[in-house]
Amino acid sequence: MMRLAAKVSRSMRNGSSFSFPVPKPPLLSPPPIRQFSANSSTFTANPVALEMIKYATCLARDQKTEESYARGLLVLEQCESTQPDDNSKGLVELARSTLLFERGSHEAAIERLGKLQDLSLSSIAIKVAGSEALVGIYLERYQEDAASAVADLALQFLGTIRQEMGDGGGFEVLEARVKALKGLIELICGNLNSAQSVFEGVQRERFFNGNTTLSYGEFLHGMRKFSTAKELYQKVIRTMSEIKDFSDPNNLGACNMTSEEVAIAASCALGQLEAHMGNFNDAEEILTAALKKTEEHFGPHHPKIGVILTCIALMYRLKATAEHSSALLIQEGLFRRAIELLKAPPLEVDGASENVYRKDIIALARGGYAETLCVQKSRKAEGERLKNWAEAAWGNRWMSLGEALELSESSPKVPVVDTRICRAV
């Protein structure tokens, strides 16, 4: 099922347009189930591979430069060539895709995830982690159809395993993770009833991990079910802090779906929730801590920093409105820095362009910045230009950009920034 990813990657590198195909029956045929054992979700990873992956990751993130990431990737390349089994090679591919993603090489990360298809894996957990990472990248790139196709293939694959091997093999947790991906896709597409059905089904199965719990929390948060969402966010943060063995198959992740990304996203979501509830002191403390963690993990100039800064600026905007005060200078400074870090395109570039990455967040930042300028007579024209671009870029199905910025109490839904995929859900 990963060959589709490689096809997308080749098309992107060649500069040609690519329309994600509707999967045909042959593509849905999974590998022979006989190669998977009942304990395939609890494989024992090669300790040498784990140590080399850990070393390469630390090497890459030490200075967070092109050179340091290149050194880390070289170690992983050498590591893969020495591994005696494909499961260990699969772990290396997950690590390589993660470092490439963090460096901003999304197409190369997709290509590495596609290489998992060529391995004779007995570990279903590695396949699920690869599919989850692909979905995460596609969602960040606004390719919902591609994300949905990957999730559908993974579900059919796991369904076939369930039919042939029955329950009790540890596959249920992995299946719940893929179902939660479908719920996140439905949420982003504005299909709230479908998203609710998926998330409630996963909840009944009681197989939650960080990503599944976080996505369901975002759904509840967006629907203003604040107390329940808060419990889920806190559960994610607590669970992530308790994880010690990142080689556990159920904890495997890659790219924007790693445990580090989940922990940061949960903290940022909790900070937003506190702001939506009017608890601004708590919101500021939580968002500031999330910002610090993001800087430590990605470095001070990564676009993810711009995402967190946008959330902080929006918190100050809400606070100023609630307290009938003015914090224009603070908001303006935060929005302007966020726009810079997000690598926002020039205003001449169409805000609705499919080639604009993170356009949801850029729209929020530019829209909020525009509001601070429009109240200044000498800068109103500049503010209007920013506002027009932001409104064109905003793609939320349930509210306008103005409604998202104002957050009226009468609105049935609030926007939630998901830092994993850099989108407002």
TrEMBL record:
Annotated Gene3D superfamilies: Tetratricopeptide repeat domain
Top-level taxonomic group: Eukaryota
Protein name as annotated: Kinesin light chain
InterPro entries: TPR-like_helical_dom_sf
GO cellular component: mitochondrion
